[in-house]
Structures
1.
Amino acid sequence: MNAKKTFLFAVGLLFASKVVGQQILDTNTIWSEANRKFYYIDNDTTVIGEYTYKNVHSYYGTDIHYSGAEQTYLVREEGERVFWRNAFTNEDYLLYDFGLTVGDSVYVTPDSYDTMDSTLLICENVDTVFLFGIERQRLTMRTTNPSPYYSTDIEYWLAGIGSTLGLFNSGHLNTAIVDQMDPSLYCCHKGFNQVFQTENSNFCYGSGVSLESYLVSFVQVYPNPTTGKITISSKSPISGIDLYNLYGQSITTDINLHTNELFFSEIEKGMYFLKIIINGNEIIKIISYE
């Protein structure tokens, strides 16, 4: 991949907001990366000692959908710097420092499979770019000892997003890992607002698959089968819940949209269709009432 062609610039708004500093760990931020890696920040946190960490959930899957949670990372921001906590060493490692100026050097530690050694990066430039109508601070970072497996020694750090190599891949170009492709951040959303995408628009949350379709895979209904109540869990706000019999007839029952709970009462036991509406998308689940 040509690093100079990493960005898809939006032809923009006359008045656009500007993002500087870190601001990466916003709730409902979603990253999709090469090799089908997927990261999501919910509103859950973990407190260890004096620090409060955001829980970053990691998923991995196919081109069709992502599987269940694979790993949870603990990440925190401290001023202009972003750290992640390694679950094996119980130590924090630096991922980003957005306070760098041209000529500054910094050691960062990516989440690498073959080494926990820090990587030395040099800040070659600090400027701003327009991405989807927002002006973002950009740091051009060069690794001092690039791996021969990769086609570039440059990565970009974008305020509010992270590295163009991927969220936990700052300094990754220095590691001797043979990926299926160059490490790359395909796209990033904050909520349902897209804030970044690679040059190839087919690479986002799967070829031709929408963000909404991926979030559908995180809808959980439990217990199923049920003996009287089900709870619906979703990474996105639920705007509607309906129950139907096998003939497609609407069934009146007690539904609480505040808690996303459905109570079965005075209806026959058997199989039912549950329709869940999320951002205009209809998700159908089959429910067994015993």
2.
Amino acid sequence: MQAAAAARPPGCGPAWLDDARHQALRAFMERGLPDTREELWKYTALRALQQQAYAPCDEDAASRSVADDLLRLDGCAGPRAVFVNGTFRVDLSRLDNLPEGLTLQPLSEAMQRQSEPLRFLLAARADEDEDGLTLLNRALAADGLIVRVADGVRASQPLHVVHVGASAGSAVGWHLRDLIELGEGASLAVVEHHVGDDASGHLANLVRGVTLRANAHLDWTVVQRASRNTTLLRRTDCVLHDHAELDFHALELGGKLARHELRVDLAGARARFASRGAFVLDGRQHADSEVLVTHRGRDTLSDSLWRGVAGDRARGVVHGRILVQPGADGSDGGFYNKNLLLSPTAEIDTRPALEIYADEVKANHGATVGQLDENVLFYLRSRGIPLDTARRMLVRAFCAVTLDGIQPASLREFCETLLAEQLPETEA
């Protein structure tokens, strides 16, 4: 990481941007990477990351071959944006027939042609909630995706965003920054897809800002099956205005270390956020799901249900925090997390939390960590089902509830198949 920090920030022209990048890099050098002394990183250590050297970019990313089956995802036949080792690939993308009112542009292109509208995004002063990784992204992000949906536009096809980690001979560290904006009454579905065939141990550092104007609706699904050697670190900040709605589904299967810090600010009255997520881990995988919801407007609603499964020596982390700010009267928030340990050496740390500073609020949370129910296993075996098959049936059913609601149905069925393939072996 020190090598990455020592890299020269990409020069993109405007003085304000170059100055913002250098300020962020200096702040990173002072602050460093987050460590376990920070509350949000209590169970996720980055010691191995600090010792790893990463090339600042993949010089051949624009020409690397990518198998068609890596990009395929059932239910995603519409627009597609593809990044390979952090580089946008127009030849693999499908952007010719975007619906009227939906604009999509790579950040690298926007910074060269029309950088001034991005000044607020890229040159804003870092706040106290931004950790070292976010600062490093501010300094080094060379690409990303700018998505805007005009007022009243309802996109009929999901936008498929694919991040591919391809073998490059050595480990590469890339930093992407995205912006998604939906205008008043707009509607969009986004499918974020992480895949990889590399054995290089790449680092992907993604930072994303999402803004939903009044009455907008975003349906966002994450299908994460990155290479087992990849370190995938993501942070997403969402702001929802009056009556805006965000439906979020996540299936986290891949990566050596995969972390997503999802921050949702229900700023407007009657804004709504619903999330369903699951991780399934094996070997020495480590997954960290941080869901941080702030109720700021009146009569806002949040509803989250997460499931975790860990086998062998894997470790999972789930942190669900609901913060109800003063004046957010009538808020209704819930976060529930259930987990299964399939091995005595596996570990899952779950931390639901409530902070309430308003009146007339309903808020609930709950968390469990356990093993398969022996009585249910006995029942299935008494019906002639082999032990291993019975265990896999129970684990699959345990996670499948989080996939309900994924649309279209073909995408949900694809996720169910991926889930079945990923299930680790259970130990007697």
3.
Amino acid sequence: MAPTLYLVIPCYNEEQVLPVTSKLFLDKIMSLVNAGKIADTSRVCFINDGSRDKTMDIIRSLCSEDEHFAGISLAHNKGHQNALICGLMEVSDKCDMTISMDCDGQDDINAIDGMVDEYIKGAEIVFGVRSDRKTDTWFKRTTAQSYYKFLRFMGVDIIPDHADYRLMSSRALKALAGYSEVNVFLRGIIPQLGFKTAIVYYSRAERMAGSTHYPLKKMLSLAVDGITSFSIKPLRMITTLGMLIAILSFIGIIYIIVGAIIGNTAEGWASTTILLCFLSGIQMVSLGVIGEYIGKIYMETKRRPRYIVDEEINLPEDKE
């Protein structure tokens, strides 16, 4: 029997691009069904992340036109990662595998064929990895490459040039359900699951319509989450830096005392001011890093739900 596949696609204010890409998603599902690779019970499942435009109306319309479309609407905007994990968890018992991807059409839809082939060969997780970054600006390309290297340096197990385009089996999804943290960074969690993995390379295209919903501010926030959720090296670096400054300060004190004894002293406020400003800056940065970790602890201890589902459309009963 052919396996059931669910495409899980988070959407936030995608009224411009959704009518275009939804047809491509459906055509890909039907081509795989006709080829006998997946079952006709497969679905394209959109996750409406509290959109303020007509995104959910479009999803309802698509679901009424074709049963291969399904929709989940969150009661409030919870962010891309939470919307994605909502979709994965809500459909995990309804299918044999999921493929998560963005709604904007930038992820090469033809890479799905390779992912399904790898699943049939036995892979539980298949990562979609960009073969190049030609569509990125020089700034984004440089910062992205530096970010991946920095995460590796911090001890985070992450796949370079991989975002959230991936296949996961129902077995891998059940393992993912055991990760209940509120600060979700799936790019760091998924490689830790430990199942058999594979990689499918693809070229990322330009957005088909609309504008990006991931500006620099959100990218920086995701970067901070990736570091603080999986590594305590920043805290250790602060400790090391503190010890180094303490040693240098001790040497400076000895130098001053020796200078006073031999009468080689010089008055000056500039050096003193610079030193105070430097130490104050180090202290503020250190407090900021420590505060980021404390904030993460605070959010986790409240144990609030990561998402609340408001509406579900065309989702069948769980598979037995």
